[in-house]
Structure of HAD family hydrolase:
Amino acid sequence: MKWILFDKDGTLIEFDKSWEKIGLRLVDSFLDEFPIENKEEAHRQLGVVDNAILPESVMGSGSLDQIVDAFNNIADQDVSTWTRNTSQQLVDTRVPENNWIDGVYDMIKSLKNEGYNIGIVTSDSKKGVLQFLEATHSKDAFDLVISTEAHAAEKPNPAVLKPLFDSYDVKDEDVVIVGDTNNDMKTKVNAKLGLAIGVLSGIAKKEELIDADVIIETAVSVPEVLKTHFENK
C-alpha cells in the first residue's frame, strides 16, 4: 500500500455536531421553500426525529446526491439546484469543531515516517478543510486533500478520487480508505481500492459498515491493520 486516505469527521476528528445543525437547517429550509403537504412524514423519511437526526438516515449518513434524491421525491419535483446551493451556503457559514480523536494525529505522523502518503477525502468543503488544517496546525501531515463542493463528485462515486489518480502515479489496489460510514467503504468497492477500514468513532454502527474489509474502534489501530494485511498477503 502506498496511499492511505482518511475521511475527516468521525475518523480523524470527533464527529462535528455542527453538521447536524446544518442538516436540520437544510430540512427546515426545504420544508419552508416547497409546498410539502405532510411535513411529519417528510421528517420521518429524512430521518429527523425530535429535532435530531438519526445517524443511519439519509440526513445522517447519506451523500449530498442521496439527499437531493430524497428531497426530489418528497417535493415531487426537481429541487436539485436549490438543494445543492442551499447546502453549500450552509456549509460555507458553518463554525466547525476540530477535536482530534485521541492518538490519531500521532498515528498519522507515524505512518508518514514509515513512508506512506496520507490524504483526506471528505464531504466537507475546501473552506471547512482549510479551517481544520489551520486550527489543528496539521497542514504538513497530509499530502493530498480532496474536498466536496456543491457540484463535485462525492463518495461513494469513484470519480471523487480523480485528483489522486490524475496527480500521482499510483495503482488503485495500492490505496487504502479509512472512514466511519459505509459510503466510505463503498468508495473502496466502486474504485477497486486495495483495502477499506471502517472505524466506530463516528456515526455508523458496526452492522452498517457492510462493505468494510476490517472494522476497528478508532483510526489509531490502522497501523496494526496494515501490518496484518501485509503479513497475510
User: Anything to note?
Assistant: The chain has a mean pLDDT of 92. The chain has ten helices and eight strands. Residues 3-15+97-231 form a domain with the Rossmann fold fold (CATH 3.40.50.1000).
